[in-house]
Amino acid sequence: MRVIPVTADAEVFTCNAFLVVGDRTVLVDAGSMSGVEDVVAEHTDHLDAVVVTHQDHDHVGELDAVVERFDPEVYAYADHPLRTHELPDGETVQIGDEAFEVVYTPGHTDDHVSLVSEQRLFSGDVVVYNDTAFEDGSFGKTDRPGSSRERLIESLQTLLDRLPETVETMYAGHGDVFESRTGGDTVRDVIERALERAERRQPKYPEA
């Protein structure tokens, strides 16, 4: 299956929205880039579903436009006017050619989920490979109402507990896609490094 970052050329702040083309064509997050539905249409004329990792604006800002264009099913943990299916912890959802387990990972937001298959992780914002705070393992901000560093720390540990050893690629909501390297860092290494940094309880951006 192919995983295509459809917001890669955005000129506004947006998450990484990933189009997964396979047996079941799915968009993971819709982003906030105007015209994202046109980019999706360059790769497919049919979208089976949108799976939402959480409902920050940069992840769902263009959800209405995507739904209007393709009329897909919409999966989300928390209620949303366009949601057609809940995403409870432990549920399995097919994305592309693979079955993904829903792992409830609150902390950055209280509705955050990650999606884990035998080979891939869609981590949303709970853990990213690189951002403006840290390289090679960072974690989502927890400085807003409804967020919690303690819950995020628990979520990172939960993710490690439920991550198959065979996962080789992490698609995060921000920063670069990470692929495990032979003889080098693995996806698990990246999450463990993010967990260690989160556990310091220091501000993610000390200058803020």
From TrEMBL:
CDD domains xrefs: metallo-hydrolase-like_MBL-fold
UniProt keyword list: Hydrolase, Metal-binding, Zinc
SUPFAM superfamilies per the UniProt record, alphabetical: Metallo-hydrolase/oxidoreductase (SSF56281)
Keyword Lyase: no
Organism: Haloferax elongans ATCC BAA-1513
Gene Ontology MF annotations: hydrolase activity; metal ion binding
Annotated Metallo-beta-lactamase domain residues: 14-174
InterPro entries membership: MBL_Glyoxalase_II, Metallo-B-lactamas, RibonucZ/Hydroxyglut_hydro
Parts forming coiled coils: none
Keyword Hydrolase part of the UniProt annotation: yes
The protein's name in its UniProt record: Putative metallo-beta-lactamase family hydrolase
Co-factor(s): Zn(2+)
